[in-house]
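Example 5.3 — Fe2OG dioxygenase domain-containing protein
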Amino acid sequence: MQKAAVSEDGLVIPLIDFSRFLEGDETLKLETAKAILHGFQTAGFIYLKNIPIQPNFREHVFNTSAKFFKLPKEKKLEVGWTTPEANRGYSAPGREKVTQLTDPAEVEKIRSAAPDIKESYEIGREDEPGHPNPWPVEQDELLGFKSTMTNFFDQCKALHVEVMRAIAVGMGIDANYFDSFVDVGDNTLRLLHYPAVKSEVFKINPGQVRAGEHTDYGSITLLFQDSRGGLQVKSPNGQFIDATPIENTVVVNAGDLLARWSNDTIKSTVHRVVEPPKADEVHPPRYSIAYFCNPNNKSYIEAIPGTYAAESEKKYEGINSGQYLVQRLAATY
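Solution (predicted structure tokens):
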């Protein structure tokens, strides 16, 4: 029986020991895979503990991220975000507005009314032609920044592969079914900083959030949180429920492309980041790290075998992964 990390208002997000899938016998591996798949099918979210990425290294990555965001603004803008095709570099507070809307004019309207209170730095794979990562100058406290982040990127990429294998086992298809779709690593590592903010900001503007309600675009997202809180997931009844941080876990949610790939047998659930639950006059900074996992840019995505009995039951036409993701991303900037 899996313990629930969240259980409220019909939303049940399981807490799953991932070592049981990685190291267990075939029975334990299958049981864990089915629990992972069930979590994605019902909540769209799971928490994983005992992942291969060690806690002390995760802490080091968080500390390194914080050092980047402490740089003067002009230094951060030197490595600024440029295009949806590249999707690399720094975005200042208010530039991006995550939302379910796709019309640029509508996005700009809500961005002006309640900009997201966050800044971010995106990192892609190192060997993508035409899209180099714009690394900051390494000096003083930023020494080793690139090696830390590329190491973390690669470890998250490996975890993505294993989670997709668990989904495949849970579905009853070949464990390596997804391998050729995710082996390139067309993923995005996003460092996030939500600056300190007075609680009155949220009272003056009830629509103000740190990150607006949205779904993610790709296959899955690996979210590493600090202890501040603020992440909320929408329940089946339409209420936003706190996804409280649990030490030494990663929150994993399914994205829109995986939901489409699964013929909607997997859920991509709306979530947001709001005022932290703790009542402070000034909310301290919040740091999180999201690793957005995607199929390879060149992959052609159509319904997974076993999610339909006849061609007429396929809900979506096949699409190119890279084109789909660029179109979705372009609307938020």
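Remark. The chain has a mean pLDDT of 90.
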